[in-house]
Amino acid sequence: MSRLSRAICVCAGVLFLVGCGSNVEFIRTDPTKYESTPSTTQIEVFQGPIVKPHVVIGVVTAVQEMKATTGTLSTYDEALRVLRVKARSVGGHALAELKPVYSDNAHVEPKVELTAKVVRFLEKEASISTQ
User: Which domains are present in the chain?
Assistant: First the structure.
């Protein structure tokens, strides 16, 4: 096999591997850039709106290809894990209004697609002394 053929095969293999797995997209709605949340912090998940004071940092969507699983995570769990990782990276504390996204070609390309708002809880305002 020539060097060119090998290089083409390697590139094709890398592109194939990159195309598999999950994809995440984040759309920022708050211009403030926050520090990342520590990786040990649990990102809460809410199906509906949140009543605690908060700011919506943005909207995150994860697409996870369906696959036969032999591990401990299902495809849904893996997509949710990806959402949590992204939420942490942009300084989020929780995911709100988590919901699946349905596509017309789900029968052709089986996948799980989840979307949620990334929220950051507001700190209690420091009390101002009038003394």
Answer: 20-121 (3.30.110.70)
Beta pairing, strands 94-100 & 44-45: parallel
pLDDT along the chain (131 residues), means of 10: 48 40 90 95 92 96 77 80 97 96 65 94 52 38
The radius of gyration computed from the CA coordinates of the chain, to the nearest angstrom, equals 20
Please, which residues bridge with residue 121 across strands?
54
The confidence score (pLDDT) of residue 96 equals 97
Whole-number Å distance between alpha carbons of 55 and 118 = 9
Q: What is the DSSP string of 15-48?
A: HHHHHSSEEEEEEE--SPPPPPPPTTS--EE-SS
CA distance 14 to 8: 10
Residue pair 100/61 in contact (Cβ under 8 Å)? The answer is no
**Cα separation of 100 and 115, whole Å?**
6
